[in-house]
Give the backbone structure.
Amino acid sequence: MSATVDLVIRDALLVTPEASRHGAVAVDDGRIVAIGRSEAMPSARRVIEAGGRPLIPGALDVHTHVREPGFSHKETWATATAAAAVGGVTTIFDMPNTDPPTANAAAVREKIAIAGPQAHVDFGVYGYVGEANLADLQPMAEAGASAFKLFLGSDNPLVPCPNDGAVLDALALIRETGLRCTVHAENTPILNWRGAQMKAAGRDDLAAHLAQHADIATVEAVQRIALFAEWTGCKIHIAHENCRHALPVIAAAKRRGVAITAETCPHYLLLSMDDAERAGGNALRVKPPVREAGHAEALWAALLDGTIDMISTDHAPHPVEEKHRASIWETSPGFPGVETSMRLMLTEVAAGRLTLQHYVRLACEAPARAFGLWPRKGALLVGTDADLVLLDLDHRETIRGATFQSKGKVTPFEGRETQGRAAMTFLRGTCVAQDGQVIAPPGTGRSLQPP
Ligand code: DOR
Ligand code: ZN
């Protein structure tokens, strides 16, 4: 350790999944170089007195849609990563449904080249899994993809759902890369059939969208992909788990030893169809849908018992006019999330629904472990990246989409009071955001890949 280090954060409550203890962290050259008593820290060019507030690892969000290339009117790498930084998220993974889709090595390299100069936080890039690009899977991994994304439920022509034969071949190939495959687990034929039925009946309301995405469509797809993962030995990750009937399927697969992890998102934990009016009516449209009351309770139980491993957001920004349309079928699905997730979950911590230590496991350690980045990311250990978030657990604020860094300004949490937020976000020792403002230049973030 050099005599004088870059940064010391003193008098903090250091929170990990295992423990909360008072102490300090010293940072040099982007890494944590010492953890211990405040008095034992080396001298530093910058000293921050935390005043006893909690210091946690930066959060990882393994499910975001950054939109570039192709849809920069919806979001850019600059705006998405600014949103992440103020939200306490120091690593995001970007989904491949861009234009062009991230479906070969050149597209992976192109996306990383677009992202790097704009990024305020570190990032990983997903490679798309389709029928036509099986030969591109290994080259995408070599070009820097962090993980793969399989859309089992898709009506997007840019990222169509492959047939089951191709899915099996793809999982066998992905297994060889060592990377994990994230799965949007819904049954496409059921979605297509029920969607056509709803349209034929003249239905164009939010409840019709829910009816299209029937529970059985996700239960079947989770069951099938868990079996395929077991058969091939590929590591999979269930995206945006939203349905109580799929939880026993995930739990059973885990008991059998399948390499399966799962995420859920704040909108599935905190909203139901009963909130539709308050959440903006059609603007609540998201795929998969926010379901009837009763699912959230089961998702919370699954989060607490380990069936669901982590929190993500499915950050999916769209312009305001695309979120307020009379027909549900014309309303773009999804909304921004990376900026509000930590605030919403800390509010639940304040309400006693989970402990802060448990939140750190769900938001930091579990995603880093599942995607091969732990302990470099998601940990408070000597030698790891100094991605740190100093929390203010008393900060109260009302969510207002108009104030977002994201270009997506429509949120189903509009008007909701939150308690707690990221006061300072550090990326490899650099303070990238403070009190809701981005303070580091674009280009601070870097592309990541598991070792
Ligand atoms: O609601 C959604 N929005 N679900 C998806 O699967 C895609 C996403 C998007 O890209 O807008
Ligand atoms: Zn998504």
User: Anything to note?
Assistant: The radius of gyration is 21 Å.
